[in-house]
């Protein structure tokens, strides 16, 4: 695989509590387990590096204990940090409450990752073959959004840029969002985020509208639908709904990150987008059977999973292939 994934996003420390159900207002719950883990953009980076990409981080980490914890986690996964730590702030954190039905609720506190300017990003350079990624979280921060949008717009034409708007999409000013979408080579989002950008409609209508009206330079868009799989539409008009895989989920935290990281990794090594989507569906399916947001599988695990699925005739085969105008 040639080139790197240059991640210009945000990483935070997650404090993860597992509970049977969310507490009612004014009441208290005792968690069944607790963990401190690297989270945020780290989950997507892990998915990409475990499936074969060289990953470097061009965002901002803090100078306190949270930043130190993240740097150690990056080093353990072979992820190089290109920028020096913030001299004045620690990295932020997120409290994640995982209930017994595998759903999760978050409360976050921004830190150094929320402040990004072009001087800080000066050490970040790209080369032919690289892929660049960012998420809506960094664009939602008032202290980073303009500089990041400027940096993205200045990327060389031959560098593919991948964007995940994330659930905080409504916190991104529309002019900033429009600039980033206009530069995107690939957009990966869920149905709610697609509707926030392009209005109401079914998945095929939204995918077509995203390409035609919002991502004019994109090679394609991916609309993720959790366990159901994803819908991929290419700029040439071909589209395919790629079915998901039935698994027993224990933790859905990080599933979208696993999907995007595996999808970009597959594209970077030359996979067709529809096949890359099936590979990404498998990565996400494996990840939800494990606890933790950074539970993305490696390439060998995904290939074994796909081989077993093919042998048993399990869902996940390409479906609803069609050509549209």
TrEMBL record:
Which residues does the UniProt record annotate as the domain Carbohydrate kinase PfkB?
A: 5-295
SUPFAM superfamilies per the record?
Ribokinase-like
UniProt key word Transferase: yes
User: What GO molecular function annotation could you give as one example from this UniProt entry?
Assistant: kinase activity
Q: Which Gene3D superfamilies has this protein been placed in?
A: 3.40.1190.20
Identify the domain of life.
Answer: Bacteria
Q: InterPro entries, alphabetically?
A: Carboh/pur_kinase_PfkB_CS (IPR002173), PfkB_dom (IPR011611), Ribokinase-like (IPR029056)
Residue stretches in coiled coil = none
Transferase recorded as keyword: yes
Keywords recorded for this protein, A-Z:
Kinase, Transferase
What does UniProt give as the signal peptide span? Answer: none
Task: Output the Pfam families linked to this UniProt entry.
Answer: PfkB
Q: Name one GO cellular component term.
A: cytosol
Q: Which PANTHER family match?
A: SUGAR KINASE, SULFOFRUCTOSE KINASE
Protein name, entry field? Ribokinase
Q: Which organism is it from?
A: Rhizobium loti (Mesorhizobium loti)
């Amino acid at each position: 695989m040639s080139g790197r994934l240059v991640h210009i996003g945000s990483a935070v420390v997650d404090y993860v509590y597992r509970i049977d159900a969310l507490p009612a207002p004014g009441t208290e719950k005792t968690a069944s387990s607790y963990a401190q883990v690297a989270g945020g953009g780290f989950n997507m980076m892990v998915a990409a590096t475990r499936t074969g990409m060289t990953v470097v981080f061009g965002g901002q980490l803090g100078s306190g204990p949270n930043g130190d914890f993240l740097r150690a986690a990056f080093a353990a996964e072979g992820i190089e940090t290109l920028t020096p730590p913030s001299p004045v702030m620690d990295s932020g954190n997120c409290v994640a409450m995982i209930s017994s039905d595998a759903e999760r609720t978050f409360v976050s506190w921004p830190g150094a990752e929320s402040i990004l300017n072009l001087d800080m990003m000066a050490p970040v350079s790209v080369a032919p073959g690289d892929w660049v990624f960012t998420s809506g979280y960094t664009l939602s921060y008032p202290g980073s959004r303009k500089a990041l949008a400027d940096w993205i717009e200045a990327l060389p034409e031959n560098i593919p840029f991948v964007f995940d708007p994330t659930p905080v999409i409504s916190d991104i000013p529309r002019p900033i969002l429009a600039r980033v979408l206009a530069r995107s080579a690939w957009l990966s989002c869920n149905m709610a985020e697609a509707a926030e950008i392009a209005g109401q409609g079914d998945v095929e209508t939204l995918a077509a509208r995203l390409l035609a009206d919002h991502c004019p330079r994109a090679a394609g868009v991916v609309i993720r639908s959790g366990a159901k799989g994803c819908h991929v539409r290419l700029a040439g008009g071909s589209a395919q709904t790629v079915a998901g895989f039935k698994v027993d989920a224990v933790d859905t935290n990080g599933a979208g990150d696993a999907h995007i990281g595996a999808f970009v990794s597959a594209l970077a090594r030359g996979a067709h987008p529809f096949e890359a989507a099936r590979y990404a569906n498998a990565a996400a399916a494996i990840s939800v059977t494990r606890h933790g947001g950074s539970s993305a599988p490696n390439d060998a695990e995904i290939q074994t999973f796909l081989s077993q699925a093919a042998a048993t005739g399990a869902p996940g085969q390409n479906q609803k292939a069609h050509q549209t105008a």
